[in-house]
Automatic annotation (TrEMBL):
SUPFAM superfamilies referenced in this protein's UniProt entry, alphabetically: Porins (SSF56935)
Protein name, per record: TonB-dependent receptor plug domain-containing protein
Signal peptide annotation: 1-20
Domain TonB-dependent receptor plug residues, every copy: 46-146
Length: 620
């Protein structure tokens, strides 16, 4: 159990109040699982939701910062303000987490380093759903330890909105004392057009920073469009398109200390087209096609592009059909999907592979006090052949408020093209002989909920077979991935969400804690990239207070890795609401903590920022 001093515990409990939100609204959220429609209050998995209302009140300005506030999520940034980050769940690696937008896969087949190249500004997000544990039965392969599903907004009014912000530490940049203070600035602009039969929304976002350290300046632009067509009460169509451009100095990001002059430019295009059809009173059908294209231009010497330059172009085309049938004994969900992946790379070569899957689920509440969900996913990969991934979850209601849940499942992670074919000597090389990873996990938990409280406490055990880790036996050798055998993790997780109304002020509490005990079976003489840095203790304690025209939000996070590196961070936001304009001020890293989340890259110290939002909505 955690070795945390009493002073740290006290500091953690002081701001242990969170997201002021009506818990009733969260219970009514329908989890976006593509097939079966399950309210959050009835789901028997470990799922956490971050809504648009919560995001608005907290000191975050991009998806990366928002994800860092969720239990079980390990966000390891190489640069602040969304520049570059890896995300993992419950002690897994960044390649073992599946990322989706509205249920469509956007994970990158080249490398998990690009999974958060998301062209979605915060103002376009309705909520973020995090599913912890193997996700094959729900979303297919590559969700080995969990999945993050970003749900975008559906507009209800014609309007215009703008969000402009800027910030600084008011300190000179490291290593460049004569070149002024480190700053960050950004804007998000949106327009929406709402008609009875069709709705459209368009967002543009831009973020820019001059860099905290030498050669870490960044420049990112995002463009996002979504349209909806309501054909009639039983048929609708939704389409979206997005584009991301992200250029940043990558000093120390991947190959320190030799990469001081490196730069990376990433461009990502994602689009999807889906429709929903209520073919009868009991039968529902939803086909979808989506495509993700990514360009990655890594320049080891930014001033000399004739050497050590890596250019990668990959494309993933996905096609799927999901369906749901309601019967007298329960709901049945079935579907099929295909994902076609291609890469053309200057140092990996040209490769392609196809993935085809079919799945079925059955959910029933016909047994008294018991609800059961059972299913399986059958997968064929052109490189790794056939596999099947079953799973189940069940909940037993002890009373109207208390519920015991048990779930177990399995999943697969196909090695990335980087795992297999990378050739970046002397730093890293791939291994074309890798096997796919397979995971099995079981969890037991108890849940409590009433008008004001939602609580969840549980234990899980996970075993990964053919676990892939990047290792080396000598510091003069490159890192290379190998199947290291078994990776076992035992974990304890707890979360409590509470809200309270006192006269005209609404308060909320969200207290979360996770403890992980990983065991990796491998030779002691090997140096592992993974084993040194995964989380062991994680505490997330958040607070908001909301009045008619003002909000106050505090976030408190304590992370300790198995290498014993630990840090405690506190951020704050104060906001004022007027008729069409709101203003907010953020203070991040209030204790001015020196900390590192990834590699050897120090994150910013105390940071201040201010922002102004304008929103106009058409009446009627």
């Amino acid at each position: 159990m955690p070795k945390i001093s009493s002073s740290i515990v006290l500091l953690g409990l002081l701001p242990a109040l969170s997201i002021a939100q009506d818990t009733t609204n969260i219970r009514e959220v329908i989890i976006n699982q593509n097939r079966l429609q399950i309210p959050f209050s009835k789901d028997n998995r470990n799922i956490e939701i971050l809504t648009a209302a919560q995001i608005k009140q907290l000191p975050v300005k991009n998806v990366n910062e928002a994800l860092g506030l969720l239990n079980g999520v390990d966000l390891r940034q190489r640069g602040p303000f969304g520049t570059q980050a890896d995300v993992s769940i419950d002690g897994g690696s960044f390649d073992q987490t599946l990322v989706l937008i509205n249920g469509a896969k956007v994970s990158d087949p080249q490398t998990g380093h690009h999974n958060l190249n998301l062209p979605i500004p915060l103002d376009a997000i309705e909520r973020i759903e995090v599913l912890r544990g193997p996700a094959a039965r729900i979303y297919g392969v590559n969700g080995l330890t969990g999945a993050i599903n970003i749900i975008t907004k559906t507009i209800t009014q014609t309007g215009v909105q703008a969000n402009v912000y800027t910030g600084s530490s008011f300190k000179n940049r490291d290593e460049e004392q004569k070149n002024g203070v480190y700053y960050h600035a950004g804007t998000q602009l949106g327009v929406s057009w709402h008609q009875k039969e069709h709705q459209h929304q368009l967002f543009y976002a831009k973020d820019k920073s001059n860099g905290q350290r030498y050669n870490t300046a960044s420049n990112a632009e995002k463009l996002y469009y979504q349209g909806n067509l309501d054909i009639d009460s039983r048929n609708s169509v939704t389409w979206l398109g997005s584009y991301l451009y992200n250029s940043f100095g990558a000093n120390g990001f991947y190959a320190a200390p030799g990469d001081k002059e490196s730069q990376e430019i990433v461009e990502t295009v994602f689009g999807s087209l889906s429709s929903k059809h209520q073919l009868s009173e009991r039968f529902y059908l939803s086909p979808r096609i989506s495509n993700r294209y990514n360009e990655d231009d890594y320049r080891y010497y930014r001033h000399d592009l004739s050497k050590a330059r890596s250019r990668h172009y990959n494309n993933s085309l996905s096609l799927e059909v999901n369906s749901r049938l309601q019967t007298s004994i329960g709901d049945i969900g079935v579907g099929i999907e295909s994902r076609l992946e291609r890469i053309n790379s200057s140092n990996m070569g040209d490769h392609k592979r196809d993935n085809h899957g079919a799945y079925a689920e059955f959910r029933t509440e016909q047994i008294q006090n018991l609800d059961l969900n059972i299913g399986a996913y059958v997968n064929y990969n052109s490189q790794y052949g056939w596999q099947i991934y079953p799973g189940f979850d069940l909940g037993y209601a002890l009373s109207d408020q208390w519920k015991i849940v048990v779930n177990a499942g399995s999943s697969q992670r196909i090695p990335t093209f980087t795992d297999l074919y990378l050739n970046q000597r002397p730093g890293n090389i791939g291994n074309p002989n890798l096997l796919s990873e397979d995971a099995w996990q079981a969890e037991g938990a108890i849940k409590f909920q009433n008008e004001h409280i939602i609580g969840h406490m549980g234990y899980f055990h996970r075993r990964i077979r053919n676990f892939i880790d990047w290792v080396r036996a000598d510091a003069n050798e490159p890192y290379q991935p190998f199947n290291m055998g078994k990776n076992q993790v035992n974990g304890i997780h707890m979360n409590l969400l509470y809200h309270l109304q006192v006269q005209e002020i609404r308060y909320g509490i969200n207290v979360g804690y996770n403890y992980l005990e990983p065991t990796i079976k491998q030779a002691e003489e090997l140096t592992s990239k993974y084993q040194l840095e995964n989380l062991k203790h994680q505490t997330k304690l958040l607070l908001t207070a909301q009045h008619n025209n003002w909000t106050l939000g505090l976030t408190n996070r304590f992370n300790q890795r198995i290498s014993d590196k630990s840090y405690l961070l506190m951020d704050a936001r104060f906001g004022l609401e007027f008729q069409a304009v709101s203003v907010y001020a953020d203070a991040q890293n209030l204790f001015d903590v020196t900390y590192i989340e990834s590699a050897a890259i120090p994150m910013p110290g105390r940071w201040y920022s201010v922002g102004v939002k304008y929103r106009w909505k058409k009446n009627g």
